[in-house]
Request: fold
Amino acid sequence: MNELPKNIIDSWKSAQRSIEPNPASPEFLIEKATSMKKKSLKLQWGNLILLSLSLLGITACWQLFFPFQELLSKVGVALMLGSLLARVIGEAYSVISFGARRFTSSAYQKLQQDEKYLALRTRINGVLTYSTLGLYSFGLLLLAPEFSIYIPKLYMWLIYAAYLLMVVIWVAIIRKNVKQETDDLTQVVELRRTLCKEF
Reply:
């Protein structure tokens, strides 16, 4: 009597295993690649919005509350705003490039598109991001002489110390996010290569 339910349960488990998606099937690989790219795009949109708001906020702050007069300070402000603007443009270009990719049924063409996109994101996350941070920091440093006219030295030291701490935190966050995005996009490229081998 107990054998019948056991046979039914074994048959049911066997049937269930047979309908689970095969991790190596093309459909599974395509779905996984698409999911990873969507995750990367969400991160890029978040970066773009955050950087744009920062650019607007800092521009308003310097124009309304600290209208600098000295040439050195104006160069500093230009470096800060220019570097942020370059980063915003880079992120916007990346988002537009993601949306402008040609839809194709060819696995090889999709692989080429994803490889180019990975190279673009690597440049943006590497050279452009760290150049922006360096130029922005140098620009802030150039504001110190004029800042010292209006702000006591103790407060200036506190401002620059707080900025240095924020830079350390930013770099840690940037490195973590960049590593995650690069890993995801690299996996997408590897999945595409696997698909190309299958076809």
The chain has a mean pLDDT of 80. The chain has one domain: 39-198. The two ends are 50 Å apart (CA to CA). Residues 39-198 form one domain.
